[in-house]
Amino acid sequence: MKDLFDYCDFGDLKLNSRIVRTGLWESQREKSGNMTPDIYNRYENIAASGIGLIITELYSLYPRDTFSKYSNTIHYTQFVREARDLTDLVHVYDVPIFAQLGFVQYNKKTQQNMKIEEVTIDDIRKIQTDMIIAAQKFDFGGFDGIQLGLGNYYFLSRFINPNFNTRDDKYGGNTFNRLRIVLEMIKVIKDNTKLHINCRLNAFDGTTNGMTLTETIEIAKLLEKYGADSLQITRPRSPQFFTRENKEENPLIEATEQIINNVNIPVILGGGANSQNQINEMLNSTNIDFISMQRPFVKDPSFLVDWQIKGNGESFCKTCNNCYWKKTATCHLRSCNP
């Protein structure tokens, strides 16, 4: 029988549980970009709770990216030193931590929100170089891994999607060509850092001529072949889908199982779980071994401590999305705790 608090292997890493905390919009950074005491406190509480793996909120590749004006960025002088303080703090609890990297729009001088076909080969080289430099900063900062944002509606998720990528050069057309921008980066990052490479990938997108699960499986196999160490499966606009009003069965479960059947690297189910019994039932009725959570940690960074004590815990997060894209990583509802 699998249990969410099993000690387990995650590729070359050892985890204290099967739960992965994936960040999204949280920041609480200073205007200059520097980390605040609130950030360190939040990460220490999560690391001490019994978490298996921490994936940070988004570090935006470009400081003026439009994901959120509160997003973290790597573009300030003290980043590596402060990142080292953060990772050292998390490592005290024997918890690995990955830095999530991505961006939503590619802007060049007066050209804003460039379409995929407008991006030149020189632009592609700049994007790849910027991503590789960011990975090196994460490596210097003590992170155990990097999560490449290839899912949701980040720029690279659109680049690999046939619905958005209509290029007719070697970076467009078939699946391999559309993924080439990522595969080339993975090789260089693997050659120049010690980072575990995780790719956050849409299972499907539901758009006309867009990504299907069949193509996602092909992409997953290519990512593994070219050096990716693990995957996290998500969907576009994931927080908007996983709300208390939506009673639809989580379609990512079946999709994640199919992807797991086709690769030999760890695969994380992204989102949709909020109780201990629900997670354990899923672990033992599917081939899924790792499950990520995000908003429950906004409600209470230490909730896993109570789950270990009670044995049948349930998150007090109501998945209402009132915390979404706010300035601080705070639940804005009145406390639901008994």
Short description:
The protein is 34% helix and 15% strand. It is of the alpha/beta class and 338 residues long.
Explain the overall architecture.
With 338 residues, the protein is of the alpha/beta class. The protein is 34% helix and 15% strand. It has eleven helices and eleven strands. It has helices at residues 37-47, 79-91, 121-140, 155-159, 175-192, 213-225, 238-241, 252-260, 276-285, 295-299, 303-310, and strands at residues 8-10, 13-15, 19-22, 53-60, 72-73, 97-102, 145-150, 196-202, 230-234, 267-270, 290-293. The strands form two sheets. It has an eight-stranded parallel beta barrel with strand order 3-4-6-7-8-9-10-11, surrounded by five helices. A two-stranded antiparallel ribbon has the order 1-2. 45% of the residues are buried. The model is unreliable at 238-246 (pLDDT under 50).
pLDDT averaged over residues: 89
Query: Which sequence of strands runs across the widest sheet?
Result: 3-4-6-7-8-9-10-11
Number of helices: 11
In which range does the helix fraction lie? 25-40%
In oligomeric terms, what are we looking at?
A: single chain
Distance between the termini: 31 Å
Number of strands: 11
Report the order of strands and helices.
Answer: EEEHEEHEHEHHEHEHHEHEHH
- Global shape: globular
Strand content: 15-25%
Biggest pleated sheet: 8 strands, parallel, barrel
